[in-house]
Design goal:
Chain lengths: ~325, ~325, ~290, ~625, ~325
């Protein structure tokens, strides 16, 4: 238990440093969210730009003269209370945006991770057991090639092929607006259908990397003495493959699974923007584009918290499932 | 000034846990001396503290209490430079020659680098000295090995190489931790022989940590001392041949009794002495009594309460036992 | 002696890579691209004059990869663009590996409060998501005219942390190795222990990471061009792709298939070469590394 | 371990399903029960639906004063007094039945059958309140000195003396003036709005008259307006009322991040003619996304810029897709930063005008656009013949693509070509950066072509992309050498004044720092374009005088090249005919010219006049 | 006594990056029922290869080139995998050398027992399983309650070794093969295991084959000893004969180099040189570079496997054509 307390304190320190770093970074970002509005006002009303800017600042509730330190103290203070700040662009609290967007992102990444993990584990173990055979070469070559495709290219291709060319998938959104959200089969079906694109874009590269890691791990575990001992005991291949090889090869991956989910929170910007999917990444991209610093810091903090929680959970899960760690 | 290493009242406690509450006494009040040209064997099973003792002697670990003197100077009180100077005189050979040799360096480099560092030589002299050293420990022809890597050698060859490396600083004492346990039976004698030769021919004091009583006997039957450790304490100490032929402590007896005998007839007829327990005792600061009490077949109530002192039962033979101490 | 050690080096590090199928193919691919970047522009001329009427020509002898939306030869652009792609990618990977190694080794060797502090720094860079951070950095540095080296450094800042973490773990285990202890016993100086004993075993590891970084650096550099941080280079593959996908909409027209295909092919092939090489390197060197643990 | 792993996976599955369910429920901003249960007027059931693409703020607040307003729903929701068709110059009455313009006074007679979508009648009180609201919130338009409501259906606007003559047009056609703040929705704010607006006006008039403004008045105003603004900004009718009562033809009923659903206003005055009772907006996230939506019939109409080949492909993939183009009343230009010494040299700008092949640039960038073949006179190509006399044209330099001419100009001015590179008279190479806003596809394509042509001529030009969200800032701060930007543009009011104002006393001059107040040599003597613009504004009603000034401005613009226009932007409008809706007017119909600056007006007009009908 | 396993001309190799390791090169051996056979050799001499090839459990890079292993008249090497699986463990159980890593680290000990039982279609209830497992664990002097619910890493090296033996005994096999059962164990534990095996042999009707590099262990336990050198069988004789009258020079060297506790230390004589690399084994007799009796023919011709009087088999040119060892 001491270990976890220790670890928690350490992660807390890391968190504070990271968040402060993010804050400094965002606050040094050039650009003024009120600029566009000011240009518009100045042009429409034929007034001096400086004056228009002042009006725009007031309209958006931005105080450009507030010192960075004050802002920082305010921000940290809010964060302590679980308040992620205020979005000037959306004119609402970041918490509300997170409440709207996070479930979708979590939905996509957890489903994508689940799918890619299960298939990747299976394929990796399968390939490793057929090491050197054609099927192994095929699987690992394919996985490597998929890994070589930059994710945004993959996302664009998926969108084009499935939504545009063959019109199999709906374009954009999380569900059709003319449906009432409910637990009905048809609604859940629509939600799943809308999520297929983003899920594929996340899951395919993931799957490739799980496959390759699992293949490597399996190959390593297969060399272990206890595998040969299991063979010597006359255990069936299927039992060895599942209980002995797969379980042991999977352990390190299960830990990285949790961490992976944390990291994916931050990596959704491109995919969600391409698929127009209303998750965290979508808002993140928007926040950068419109220089919504409040939203930006808020989402950044969320992602950092996500990664840290994931790291912590990974430690915990790993200790839970691996007796070698548990007993130490 | 013939004393090279003196260990005075050395204890070692390993602590762990967040508040360092869990602890384990690994060594307790050890006193030892090594003088020029000595042979010393530390025997005992694993977990008895022999490796820790050897590492403390070689200053690879700090004792929790007590003094370690090299050439009469407390190594934890002298300055770094002096310690460095003295360190060359005390060398250590690890148990596992696979791990103690750099896997990606050639044999030439493994010897020549420290040689150049210690002797401040280079060029042809370095080459010649490296060659001499390799030949000295029996890797002949030396040039054949120069561009080989450790994994090209057998276990015995590797251990020789590790010994050769220890010799680069012209040490006055070599401490070797289980130098033969990772080596094939047929090559073990040769390594022990090498240590004996180093001792005989160059006057280097040798401290061997062994669990193999036979090897201990081979090393000390001409001269040298044996120290038997149990539960972090010296239970018996004395001239090698004397102890092996007339063991006083019950543990020493069991140890000798359990050692393999290379004679089928004798082996089949011998009766193994069984202990009451084969567990390794875990001693804490609160532990009382003789560490062997829980396993000893001769224990008395006294053994549970009082730590037996190390008493001399004969010239050059000390034992720490309430029962056999007299 | 020297000749011998060269030979040894060849047999220990080069020859196994040539024997391993994966690393051999990877090496061939990478060599091909490096040649393309170095020698290519000298051989292949670049004519960027647009010719709208000649756009989307199918691959032919005259235009091996066809022409793009502007009617410019795609092959020429790929060849000339490889220079900026490869220089930025390689530099960024190099810096990432350099920073990662130095910090990782330092962390591995330093105990106590300094070590924990370095640990925390590594962790900080691990928990800040790199891509969004880079987006912001891109905006922050937008008005500085950064040169390739500076941009590579900027990219490397977000790549080194995982490597540093791995290296520090490696060093932590290596420094308690018995051969390191032996070097200490032999009074070997710290620099010898760090740069000869420890670094020697990290080299294959670092190399693998270097190759792995190529992928990350490649993606980042393309992203940076999109964002306008890196100096705009119309033949940079990332920009070509941007033109193809977003400006010219080549995906949406049957004529433009080859346009996108050849750009993606080259990007994927380059990264795939790196992946193959690193897989090969891992296969060749890791057993030995593992065997010594 | 096995069982633990299974548990772990089970937890995992549960977590993602709950996440999904959470995501499903409580996602969208939708009216509360109260709104849906309201008794509906008896209406014939209509089933027409049209799908469009646009943008809107999300979470949707329904407050036009809040950030983002109501997005693309604007013209469906807020009707102006009238629509103005630029091509015919005709005003189509909407909320106004008729109006009378007198000296500094506009009297508007409101339509008597206009009702809000919740059944409340639309009266002159709503207009008064709206004007107070805008003035209080936006500190604009102070052109309106006061507004009165003599009866429920008459509004009298008293304009200030300084009000420009084009303001009447704005007043009549601007969607903001009539119905933004219905009294029954904003009832808690009415008095406060009037108080703040009056105070603001008072200060403004004191300032324009050059009189001192008492400090306490200023502070009072600051305090009151801040308080008011904060209150209004926080007000989200769509959320708090659960509905958005609108006077326009459609009312938003359900809004998500990616889609917005609007239902017809049953009480709308044209309701009986409308055959379409539902509008679905898709989020316009990127042009490619809109292309994809058009191909797959996800939307019925949109106006993205699209390369030629994509259009061809689209038409083959979707034969129901039609395209037409209208002038976007704006042009894309090469603009210079006159703070950089390089561009102060007119010779260089002239040479550039000769080097560029503007037809080629147009082909690459927006192929449907109108090309400026010869001139750079600051008047849109499509309007040139209307505003520039033959006589004037004779006087203008023709900038046809002619590199030899360019070379000659440069050589005469002391430039030298050394190797492949042109050098300035001071020995420096002609080198600069061309900045272009990254997210605008057509601009980037144009920039690439410009850079390419200039480089092959022997200049050293590099291109730089301005990241998303940074355009105004970069351009305003003058942190560029040359750039691609809107040049002279008409925007809402199709008169050369708008364009010249932009060039010499507005946005473009703000970013280029073109010395507009300097005097320039013309056949009419030494003239300053800045003065000319002011003069033109004063003489707008006097057509002859205006024409004369316009000739002079055209001359200066063409000869002194504050910007080089590349092509006249057009709005390509794509619509699916016969998939969901049909009845689109012919491509020549002047109604399309209403599209620039608010294409939803066209859709609204087509629906409310019953022209667009659902496909059976 | 009848022959239970007959090995005929067994050849097995390992494929490695550098080439082919000829680990077992023409081994022929008869194992008698209910006897204890020791296979003695240095590390990498091919001794483990023999038993692994016999049971077809070579590591993935191992290949059996030729030979037959007849168990009760059936050739194990050509037997179908399914059939072989049934025989494995139920009739022939092999306890591998690496006892430390031979248990799945993520499974409790009890699950290993369960797996093994299930694999052989034995239908025991859970309580039956516990009972049987406990019985076998008690047989190797382990506390079943504690051990069964432990993870492997909670057990000491000696305990793991005993767990493996208990596991091997679970289905009452006919033949029990142990690979280095005592190496890497402490003296007392080693003696303990040897004692245990002796008792097992008395208690159960079982054929025991074990592999060791310590010929002293063979002396204690074995009825017959087979000596392997460099992948070749060099001598096969009864234990008593081997120790009394070693025929092959290597066997003789091996016995002379033992540092047993009862030995005359002045006669201990290490074998010079290093064991051969099986990648490029020496020509002719593989021992010739280290053999003090080496003749010209030894370099060229491989000695034949000849049977001398009694049970003695040897492969040495000294005995061919009736040349007696002097």
């Amino acid at each position: 238990m001491n270990y976890f307390v220790n670890r928690l304190l350490y992660l807390l320190v890391v968190f504070v440093i990271a968040i402060s770093g993010v804050f400094v970074l965002v606050n040094n970002m050039p650009g003024d969210p009120a600029y566009g509005l000011a240009v518009y006002i100045a042009q429409q009303r034929n007034m001096q730009f400086e004056q228009a800017l002042e009006i725009a600042h007031k309209m958006m509730g931005i105080d450009p003269h507030e010192s960075v330190v004050t802002r920082y103290v305010k921000f940290m203070n809010n964060l302590l209370r679980g308040n992620f700040g205020y979005s000037t662009f959306y004119n609402t609290s970041v918490n509300e945006i997170i409440a709207r967007a996070l479930p979708w992102t979590l939905f996509v990444i957890s489903l994508a991770t689940f799918i890619s993990f299960s298939i990747g584990i299976y394929l990796g173990a399968f390939a490793a057991q057929k090491r050197g055979k054609t099927i192994d070469t095929l699987i690992s070559t394919l996985a490597s090639i998929i890994q070589a495709i930059p994710p945004f290219i993959l996302a664009v291709l998926i969108l084009f092929v499935f939504s545009v060319r063959f019109r199999l998938l709906p374009l954009g959104g999380a569900y059709p607006v003319d449906m009432e959200p409910s637990l009905s089969i048809s609604f859940i079906g629509k939600v799943l259908l809308h999520a297929v694109g983003p899920i594929l874009a996340v899951a395919i590269p993931q799957m490739a990397s799980w496959t390759l890691s699992m293949r490597g791990n399996t190959a390593q575990v297969m060399e272990e003495d206890f595998i040969r001992f299991a063979e010597m005991r006359g255990l069936a291949d299927s039992v060895i493959a599942s209980k002995y090889i797969r379980n042991n090869a999977m352990l390190p991956l299960v830990a990285s699974l949790a961490i992976g989910i944390g990291y994916m929170l931050g990596g959704q910007t491109l995919v969600e923007s391409i698929f127009n999917y209303p998750g965290i990444g979508f808002y993140f991209g928007k926040a950068i584009a419109v220089r919504d610093f409040g939203l930006l810091t808020g989402l950044f903090s969320l992602i950092v918290i996500g990664v840290i929680v994931a790291t912590f959970v990974a430690d915990f899960v790993y200790a839970l499932i691996d007796p070698r760690v548990k007993l130490k | 000034m013939s004393k090279i290493i003196e260990i005075k009242d050395v204890s070692k406690v390993f602590s762990r846990g967040f508040f360092k509450k869990k602890h384990r006494v690994v060594l307790e009040d050890i006193n030892l001396e090594i003088s020029k040209g000595d042979r010393l064997v530390i025997v005992g099973e694993s977990g008895m503290g022999k490796t820790t003792l050897a590492r403390i002697m070689a200053d690879l670990e700090k004792p929790s209490s007590g003094e370690v003197l090299w050439f009469g100077e407390d190594i934890h009180k002298i300055d770094k430079r002096r310690r460095k100077e003295l360190r060359g005189k005390v060398q250590y050979v690890h148990q596992d020659p696979y791990a103690s040799l750099h896997p990606a360096k050639t044999i030439y480099k493994i010897i020549a680098d420290p040689l150049a560092n210690a002797q401040r030589v280079n060029g042809k002299t370095l080459y010649q000295r490296t060659k001499d050293l390799l030949e000295k420990i029996g890797l002949v022809p030396a040039e054949y090995f120069f561009n080989k890597y450790p994994h090209h050698l057998s276990g015995g060859g590797r251990q020789r190489l590790a010994i050769a490396r220890a010799l680069t600083t012209d040490p006055e004492v070599i401490i070797a931790d289980e130098p033969i346990s990772m080596i094939d039976m047929s090559l073990r004698a040769a390594i022990i022989k090498l240590f004996k030769d180093l001792n005989d021919l160059y006057g280097i004091a040798v401290v061997l940590v062994l669990h193999d009583i036979g090897a201990a006997k081979y090393f000390t039957f001409e001269k040298g001392e044996i120290v038997v450790l149990y539960g972090g304490k010296i239970v018996e100490k004395g001239r090698g041949i004397r102890i092996l032929e007339n063991p006083a402590h019950p543990y020493t007896r069991v140890l000798i009794n359990s050692s393999p005998i290379a004679d089928p007839e004798l082996a089949r007829n011998r009766v193994l002495e069984q202990l009451r327990s084969y567990d390794v005792p875990i001693r804490t600061k609160e532990s009382k009594g003789c560490p062997f009490a829980h396993a000893c077949n001769y224990y008395t109530e006294k053994c549970k309460e009082e730590v037996p002192p190390l008493v001399t039962i004969e010239e050059g033979h000390q034992v720490a036992c309430h029962v056999f101490g007299k | 002696m020297r000749k011998e050690s060269l030979k040894n080096f060849y047999y220990d590090y080069i020859q196994p890579l040539l024997v391993n199928k994966k690393s051999l193919i990877g090496l061939i691919i990478l060599t091909f691209f490096i040649l393309m970047a170095t020698v290519g522009p000298l051989i292949v001329p670049l004519d960027m004059t647009s010719n709208f009427a000649e756009r989307y020509q199918k691959p032919s002898l005259k235009h091996p990869f066809g022409t793009d939306y502007f009617g410019v030869d795609i092959f020429q652009q790929i060849v000339h663009g490889s220079r900026s792609v490869i220089s930025l990618t390689m530099l960024a990977s190099f810096f990432a590996v350099l920073i990662g190694t130095v910090i990782g080794v330092a962390r591995g060797y330093l105990e106590g409060i300094v070590g924990r502090a370095i640990d925390a720094i590594i962790m900080v860079f691990l928990v800040i998501p790199s891509f969004p951070a880079l987006l912001i950095l891109a905006a922050v540095f937008m008005n500085y005219n950064l040169n390739v080296v500076e941009i590579a450094l900027l990219v490397a800042v977000w790549l080194w942390a995982p490597l540093a973490k791995q290296i520090s773990a490696q060093v932590l285990s290596l420094k308690s190795k018995e051969f390191v202890e032996a070097s200490k016993m032999l009074n070997m100086p710290l620099r010898y222990i760090l740069f000869s004993d420890i670094a020697k075993l990290l080299i294959p590891y670092i190399f693998i990471n270097f190759v792995m970084q190529i992928k990350g650096a490649m993606e980042f550099s393309v992203g940076l061009m999109f964002l306008g941080l890196a100096k705009f280079d119309p033949t940079h593959w990332g920009i070509m792709l941007n033109y193809a996908l977003y400006q010219a909409g080549a995906l949406y027209t049957a004529k433009g298939f080859h346009y996108i295909f050849f750009i993606i092919l080259n990007i994927v092939l380059l990264i795939y070469g790196g992946i193959l090489l690193s897989q090969g390197v891992e296969e060749v060197f890791n057993p030995r590394l593992r065997g010594n643990e | 371990m096995n069982s633990v792993l299974k548990k772990f996976i089970a937890i995992f599955v549960i977590v993602f399903f709950t996440a999904g369910i959470f995501a499903g429920c409580g996602q969208q901003t939708k009216p509360s029960q109260e709104a849906t249960q309201e008794t509906k007027p008896q209406e014939t059931v209509k089933t027409g639906e049209i799908r469009l693409a646009t943008d809107w703020p999300f979470p949707f607040h329904g407050n036009p004063f809040g950030p983002g307003g109501v997005g693309g729903a604007w013209w469906f929701v807020y009707e102006p007094f009238a629509y103005y068709i630029p091509q015919t110059g005709e005003y189509i009455p909407r909320l106004a039945e008729s109006w009378k313009v007198e000296e500094n006074k506009v009297t508007v007679n409101l339509r008597k059958d206009a009702k809000f979508s919740d059944g409340e009648p639309f009266t002159s009180k709503d207009v008064v309140n709206t004007v107070n609201f805008i003035q209080a919130m936006w500190q604009w338009p102070y052109d309106i000195e006061s507004v009165e409501a003599p009866d429920d259906h008459t509004v009298v606007f008293n304009l200030s003396k300084t009000s420009s003559s084009s303001f009447v047009h704005t007043l009549l056609t601007d969607g903001a003036m009539a119905s933004l703040a219905p009294v029954h929705v904003y009832k808690d704010f009415v008095d406060q709005a009037k108080e703040v607006a009056d105070l603001g006006k008072k200060i403004f008039y004191l300032q324009t008259e050059g009189k001192p403004v008492p400090e306490d008045m200023k502070t009072e105003y600051e305090k009151k307006s801040d308080e008011f603004r904060k209150k209004v900004n926080d007000f989200a009718p769509f959320k708090t009322l659960g509905k958005l009562p609108v006077v326009g033809s459609f009312e938003p009923v359900k809004v998500t991040q990616s889609e917005m659903e609007m239902k017809a206003n049953k009480y709308h005055w044209a309701s009986s003619q409308m055959k379409i009772d539902r509008v679905i907006f898709k989020k316009w996230s990127s042009n490619e996304f809109v292309w994809a939506s058009l191909i797959s019939n996800e939307i019925d109409a949109a106006h993205p810029s699209m390369p030629k080949d994509v259009v061809e492909q689209l038409s083959t993939l979707n034969p129901k897709l039609h395209v037409l183009t209208v002038s976007d009343l704006s042009d894309i230009s090469l603009v210079f930063n006159f703070k950089k010494p390089l561009f102060k040299d007119l010779n260089l700008r002239k040479a550039i005008a000769h080097i560029l092949d503007r037809n080629k640039i147009r082909d690459v960038s927006v192929w449907q656009a109108n090309s400026y073949e010869n001139y750079a006179d600051g008047i849109l190509k499509s309007m040139e013949s209307k505003w520039i006399t033959q006589d004037t044209l004779q006087k203008l330099t023709k900038y046809n693509t002619d590199t030899a001419a360019a070379e000659e100009i440069l050589k005469n001015a002391g430039y030298k070509k050394v190797g492949d590179t042109w050098q300035q008279p001071n020995g420096q190479p002609v080198a600069f950066t061309l900045s272009v806003y990254g997210p605008h596809n057509d601009w980037v394509l144009a920039a690439r072509e410009v850079v390419q042509e200039l480089n092959s001529f022997g200049f050293k030009v590099e291109m730089k992309l301005i990241p998303e969200g940074m355009r105004d800032q970069v351009m305003r701060s003058g942190d560029y050498d040359a750039a691609i930007e809107f040049g002279s543009a008409w925007w809402g009011y199709p008169h050369p004044l708008t364009g010249y104002q932009r060039l010499y006393d507005g946005d473009v001059s703000a970013i280029t720092s073109f010395p507009a107040k300097d005097k320039y040599n013309t056949p009419w003597g030494e003239l300053s374009p800045y003065d000319l613009v002011l003069e033109l504004q004063k003489n707008l009603q006097d057509e002859n005088k205006a024409m004369e000034i316009i000739q002079q401005l055209a001359y200066i613009t063409n000869e002194y090249l504050p910007v080089i226009p590349l092509y006249e932007k057009v709005l390509p409008i794509y619509y699916n005919d016969g998939y969901r809706v049909t009845g689109w007017p012919s491509k020549e119909d002047p109604i399309w010219s209403l599209a620039p600056g608010g294409i939803e007006r066209v859709y609204d007009l087509l629906i409310t006049t019953g022209k667009l009908v659902p496909v059976k | 006594m009848s022959i239970i396993i007959r090995v005929e001309d067994l050849r097995a190799v390992y494929l490695v990056r550098e080439g082919t390791i000829k680990a077992a090169d023409g081994i022929s051996l008869d194992i008698l029922e209910n006897s204890v056979t020791a296979i003695v050799g240095e590390s990498a001499s091919g001794k483990s290869t023999i038993i692994e090839a016999m049971t077809k459990t070579l590591p993935p890079n191992g290949r059996i080139l030729s030979g037959r292993v007849l168990y009760k008249g059936k050739d194990l090497l050509t037997m179908r995998e399914e059939e072989l699986r049934k025989i494995r463990w139920k009739e022939i159980a092999l306890v591998p050398q690496a006892a430390q890593q031979s248990l799945n680290p993520t499974m409790k000990v009890i699950e290993h027992f369960k797996d093994t039982v299930e694999a052989h279609g034995v239908r025991w209830s859970h309580s039956e399983l516990i009972e049987k497992a406990s019985e076998k664990l008690r047989m190797v002097r382990l506390n079943p309650e504690a051990v069964l619910n432990s993870y492997p890493l909670q057990l000491s090296g000696g305990m793991k070794q005993r767990v493996l033996i208990a596991l091997a005994l679970l289905l009452d096999p006919v033949v029990l093969i142990l690979d280095e059962p005592t190496s890497a164990l402490d003296v007392l534990t080693q003696a303990h295991i040897i004692q245990l095996l002796k008792e097992l042999k008395k208690m159960l009707k079982i054929t025991l084959i074990f592999v060791t590099h310590d010929i002293a262990v063979a002396a204690e336990l074995a009825d017959k000893v087979a000596v392997i050198y460099g992948g070749n069988l060099v001598e096969y004789n009864s234990t008593f004969q081997i120790f009394k009258n070693p025929l092959h020079p290597y066997t003789r060297g091996l016995i002379n180099s033992i540092m047993a506790v009862n030995a005359d230390m002045s006669k201990v004589k290490p074998i010079p040189g290093d064991p051969p690399s099986l990648l490029n084994p020496p020509s002719g007799c593989r021992f010739h570079p280290r053999c003090e009796y080496a003749m010209e023919i030894c370099k060229k011709e491989k000695p034949k496997w000849i049977r001398l009087d009694g049970e003695a088999h040897v492969a040495c040119h000294l005995y061919e054509e009736g040349r007696p060892l002097k």
